[in-house]
């Protein structure tokens, strides 16, 4: 059967789309056309959280039941109007590698990514300048990962404790679901050091693990994680990325990494309370706006600890 292809114009950019009726979420019947429509509609609130950040795509060309892969270097197939940032990183074998990362700053680029079946968009906690230079971190993130049988409910209880500590240190704290089994807390920060956010996050995570060793761990060792919540402070390493706000996830159903209110965190009593699909997130945004919308207005210096 020939591949279906159409050409559309998005904000003055010509973009080829293919296989629009391909089902990418078989258990839910969610097609690529619906993925594209979701990203088109969520773009006004999502793009500010992607803009100027070197993105990593997690692509699912055969749908969520197929084998996904991560993609950072897009220079080989990106249209010439896609902004890229050429960055040099430490490679897996210890050497250095230079890659052209996509910078998703406008609707055409977001639609291009969605057409690649890049269901998940991951971004770092730093931005790049107009010429592609990497800036110091502007976000501090804590990734709360529950070890079964712990779940997102347990993450919420840890999030409340963690938030109290961060607020006490003078930071403003935002929460979102991972769209998977956990959640993340973000604090907008100012620093001139690439290491300060990691150092501070590690100190905070280790302090809470000492206070509550029965429910919290700060080490990645899997053997000690069952029934506890791992506070992953290492997401602040400049080489790492975290799922972007409003990104779809490659799960059985089209769940979304969703900003939530602290009232919702405090009220969470079962995992379903903080599980949101694409359509539900669009409805939430229409009703509540972007709960991360003012995050850039509350930057504070990374505290000493």
TrEMBL record:
Sorted UniProt keywords: Ligase
Name the Pfam families for this protein: LigD_Prim-Pol
Keyword field contains Cytoplasm: no
Q: Which residues cross the membrane?
A: none
Q: Gene3D superfamilies per the record?
A: DNA primase, PRIM domain (3.90.920.10)
GO MF annotation, one: ligase activity
Keyword Ligase listed? The answer is: yes
Tell me the CDD domains matching this sequence: MtLigD_Pol_like (cd04863)
In terms of superkingdom, the source organism counts as Bacteria
> DNA ligase D polymerase domain location, by residue?
31-292
- The protein's name is DNA ligase (ATP)
